[in-house]
Write a structure and sequence with these properties.
Elements lengths: L8 H7 L1 H4 L23 E3 L2 E3 L6 E6 L4 E7 L3 H17 L6 H17 L1 H12 L3 H22 L3 H4 L4 E4 L2 E5 L5 H14 L3 E5 L6 H12 L7 E3 L4 H9 L5 E5 L2 H11 L5 E5 L5 E4 L5 H13 L11 E5 H16 L19 H16 L3 E4 L14 E4 L6 H4 L6 E7 L2 H9 L6 E5 L3 H10 L4 E4 L18 E2 L4 H6 L2 E4 L1
Parallel strand pairs: 6-7, 6-9, 7-8, 9-10, 11-12, 11-16, 12-15, 14-15, 16-17
Antiparallel strand pairs: 1-2, 3-4, 5-19, 10-18, 13-14
Helix pairs in contact: 4-6, 5-6, 6-8, 12-13
This protein binds NADP nicotinamide-adenine-dinucleotide phosphate and magnesium ion.
NADP nicotinamide-adenine-dinucleotide phosphate (NAP) binds next to α10 and α11.
């Protein structure tokens, strides 16, 4: 349990909010102690076997909280990717296509249960490798990954209810590529619906966060999943390109940046391959003057600082109604000053490490542009660890639509604040973006929620909450945020070729 030094928080809050979060009031360290059971070096997972890469190439996976290497990860080359697709084709023809939906579901249940059994170990590995706070990997990423396997296990023998009256078939072998912000969860979003619908998989995790994907191979072996049904090939962007261009890949499912998504769309155009793209976002989180203010402050904080802001649907553009803007921004600043930044493995950490040096440079670059273009920067004055890649939780007040920080995805703990006067101005500003992934609305009025959720061009609109996820709920974007949906019944349909 964290301990409190002297005086109660309430006493101090009533007097001087600044003192509360200064040197006088601290949490003792509370590091998570579970063993992540990391190996010195990992293998590719092809045809049900751990195999050394034919490329003979490896790279190091770095702990962004310490900048030290954790383990060696294989970089799959052309021969490895070819092997993975051969194994997947074989796995499909020999095993997976011969199983009933009920039996496929049994494997998915087994995977979900095994993941639950090793949840703490996976949570520590995820936080070490990616930098996210342990409370998030422990309470969100890993349980939610297991929940996706449970959920799609239930669909495996009920596909006809997802597509009543239609005739459908799986794509066959699908290629999947995932990003670094929710490594195991993105893997679950991809693999669970693909297997439930009868497809086999070749998947590539992101270069900076491959560990939990390669540990997941151990779970597949333990579950005795037939060989070739899932193949995991780690590597950089070049490995991703090999997957996209492989003729045996009948569908590509990609989550990542809009630039790479566009390149994949060009590469697959005219090939007949199926395609789903889950790309970037620049969500508006809109607070009306009739909103429950303190609840909205918490929602805005969660919307932008969850997972260091490395969230595609982060509420990175706050739109506040002008009449409450001053009070609201002041409350936000006080709350930001209380966020604890530091060791991702500490149970009290709110904001962990930035995933990579490259990402930290990108955040710094965009923050500099915000200052240069005239927005007003506020940053927490918290101390940062001496080593590792960290960034102070920040907000920009006085942002205008033309600023880069209002248009580009920062993908870090930085909030851009704009104001509006009327409902129509809020809608206009919220939709004035190339993206369309998510949005938030904070108001006491139900009719306003209904109007906004129709008018906002975003795949997900949260009302009086933010960043809520559930396997039953479809997720995906409009415009440059991508195409296709993951999660829910819609997630099933995107892994089937349908004929009516
Ligand atoms: P990224 O650079 O596009 O990388 C995503 C994945 O694609 C990684 O595995 C990457 O490998 C691989 N890749 C890179 N170049 C490729 C190429 N030419 N062909 C095929 N694969 C290639 O994105 P990121 O920086 O990892 O992730 C952050 C982005 O993902 C943000 O824009 C975020 O909004 C988006 N995102 C979207 C969702 C959603 O559901 N809409 C969810 C999470 C994240 P390397 O790791 O080796 O670079
Ligand atoms: Mg790493």
């Amino acid at each position: 349990m964290p301990t409190q030094r002297k005086n109660s928080r309430n006493t101090r809050r009533r007097k001087t909010p600044e003192l509360l979060f200064g040197d006088l009031w601290e949490f003792d360290p509370a590091p998570e102690s579970a063993d992540p059971k990391l190996k010195e070096s990992y293998s590719l997972y092809i045809d049900g076997q751990q195999s050394a890469p034919k490329s003979r190439k490896y790279f190091e996976s770095i702990n962004p909280g310490t900048e030290k290497a954790l383990t060696r990860i294989p970089a799959a080359g052309k021969a490895d990717v070819n092997d993975a697709f051969s194994a997947a084709t074989n796995g499909l023809n020999k095993y997976w296509s011969k199983l009933s939906g009920k039996d496929r579901g049994k494997y998915l249940y087994r995977i979900a249960r095994l993941l639950q059994d090793r949840a703490r170990e996976f949570a520590v590995a995820e936080s070490l490798d990616g930098g996210k706070p342990i409370k998030e990997s422990r309470d969100f990423d890993i349980p939610m990954a297991a929940a996706h396997f449970f959920y799609y296990a239930g669909w495996a023998d009920k596909l006809e209810y997802a597509l009543p009256g239609g005739s459908y078939s799986p794509y066959g072998v699908v290629g999947q590529i995932i990003p670094w912000n929710f490594p195991l969860l993105m893997l679950a979003w991809k693999i669970a619906p693909a297997l439930a619908t009868g497809n086999c998989v070749v998947i590539k995790p992101a270069e900076t966060t491959s560990i939990t994907a390669l540990k997941f191979a151990e779970i597949l072996q333990e579950a005795e999943l037939p060989p070739g049904v899932v193949n995991i090939v780690s590597g950089a962007g070049a490995t991703g390109q090999l997957i996209v261009n492989h003729p045996a890949a009948k569908k590509i499912a990609f989550t990542g940046s809009t630039d790479v998504g566009k390149a994949i769309m060009r590469a697959t155009a005219g090939t007949g391959k199926g395609l789903t793209l889950e790309l970037g976002g620049k969500a508006a989180n809109i607070v009306f003057e009739d909103a429950p203010i303190d609840q909205a402050v918490e929602g805005v904080i969660n919307g932008i600082f969850f997972n260091q802001g490395h969230v595609c649907c982060a509420g990175s553009r706050l739109l506040i109604q002008e009449s409450i803007a001053k009070t609201f921004v002041q409350k936000l600043k006080t709350r930001i000053a209380s966020l604890r930044v530091g060791n991702p493995l500490d149970k009290n950490t709110d904001i962990g490490a930035i995933n990579s040096k490259e990402q930290l440079d990108k955040i710094n670059d965009l923050v500099k542009s915000g200052v240069k273009e005239g927005a007003e920067l506020f940053q927490s004055s918290c101390s940062l660890p001496g080593q590792g890649w960290f960034f102070r939780p920040s907000l920009f007040d006085g942002v205008t639509q033309s600023h880069r920080i209002a248009r580009e995805e920062i993908f870090g703990p930085v909030l851009s604040i704009l104001t509006f006067r009327t409902v129509s101005e809020a809608i206009e500003k919220a939709n004035n973006t190339a993206y369309g992934l998510s949005a938030g609305v904070w108001t006491d009025k139900g009719s306003k929620i209904l109007k906004m959720s129709t008018a906002l061009k975003a795949g997900v609109v949260w009302a009086n909450t933010y960043n809520k996820f559930d396997p039953t709920s479809p997720f995906g974007g409009y415009k440059e945020s991508g195409c296709g949906r993951e999660g829910g019944k819609q997630g099933i349909c995107d892994y089937l070729k349908v004929e009516y």
